[in-house]
Amino acid sequence: MIKRILFFFLVALSFNVVKAQDINKPKLDSLLDVLAANNKTMGSLTISKDGKVVYQRSVGYSSVEAKTLADAHTKYRIGSISKIFTGVIIFQLVEEKKLTLDATLDKFYPQMPNASKITIAQLLSHRSGLFNLTNEPEFGTYMTRPQTHEFLLSKMAALKPDFAPSEKFKYSNTNFILLSYIAEKITGKAYPEIVKQRVINKIGLKDTYYGGKINAAANEALSYDYNDGWKVAVETDMSIPTGAGAMVSTPADLDKFIEALFAGKLISAASLAQMKPTIEGYGMAMHKSAFKDKVGYGHGGAIDGFLSSLQYFPEDKLAVCYIKNGGSYTPENIITGALSIYFNQPYAIPSFKSIALKTEDLDKYLGVYASPTFPLKITVSKDGATLIGQATGQGSLRLEAKEGDRFLFEPAGIEMVFYPEKHQFLLKQGGREVLFTKE
Fold first, then answer.
1. Is the pLDDT reported for residue 114 higher than 70?
2. CATH architecture of the domain with residue range 23-344
3. Residue limits of the Beta-lactamase-related domain (predicted)?
């Protein structure tokens, strides 16, 4: 549900012009220090400009149990950022005329539902309709153990499709697991070797590889959930996600990867143009992102307790990546703060002091709000002494009260600042702002 909310908010918010100046490194340090001190994050941030690292900082531990502090070379599972690697490999095969985007899935895996109607392009753009393997009810019973391609293919083939091919967009890891297998069939090599030869070695990535069981002694981060202390999260066996989410890397290496991609070092400009989203927020293995008036491209990732975000802004030749192995503060929210500071935009370091309100204190905020620049209305209600926000057709969000008529929904990085006397609130998310007025 949070992904849907993020999609609607991120594509619809208004933009303002920004200008890059000198980097305020002490303020960037303060942002990460505050988050770490409040157990909101553990992880690493890297910002690169024109191919050079201009800021790097790590906070927290790669291993809480061993008290190993994270550093610039700590390796993290990057989840679905792996899909960009797979997308690059597929487009390389297309350029080599070993595959076409209109080739159908039945040429490789005829046992899959609708295989004769599903194209490579639809797999890349999540328009196949194939059910997401990681959402199937039994996934948790086998996700921590090694699995064969045959076992996973039987699982994916048995899942009822969500819709007919090309009918609409719906994110599904099944698409990219199958693309990984297709690349293996065409090349005759295992995916770890394919990605090593075609991407990692080609551009000289030093801390990037196909993951295995986490080795904390090799500076590989474990992931954690926080509940009155850091608790080690479950560990997915990396035989399962393959090209949908099995890569391990660092923010610095991922910055270098996406810079090389946009510099034409991995695929042609024509192929890159097909990867990039056009109208929707997702193209072929790539998301569209934004900060103020700037358009960026990249991907997010989630696996076990790891969350990550990689964004590249071509006009500024600016790459930014944050990967966390623990804490509830989203990478997108951290990147928004980092970009605000980088571009010398007004930005307040987060405060995590909550305030207690009575149910009657919330009455001045209640109502239905709309904005001419936003496609959905937002209804503000209450449940006892908790304020509730709900966009049309979306799930309800329980908002945390802060000082100054401010309310947060931290998991999605949403802030709502109310102006009761004007019957308005300002919605902030991902560096964008929209003013809503009560109907």
1. yes
2. 3-Layer(aba) Sandwich (3.40)
3. 44-329
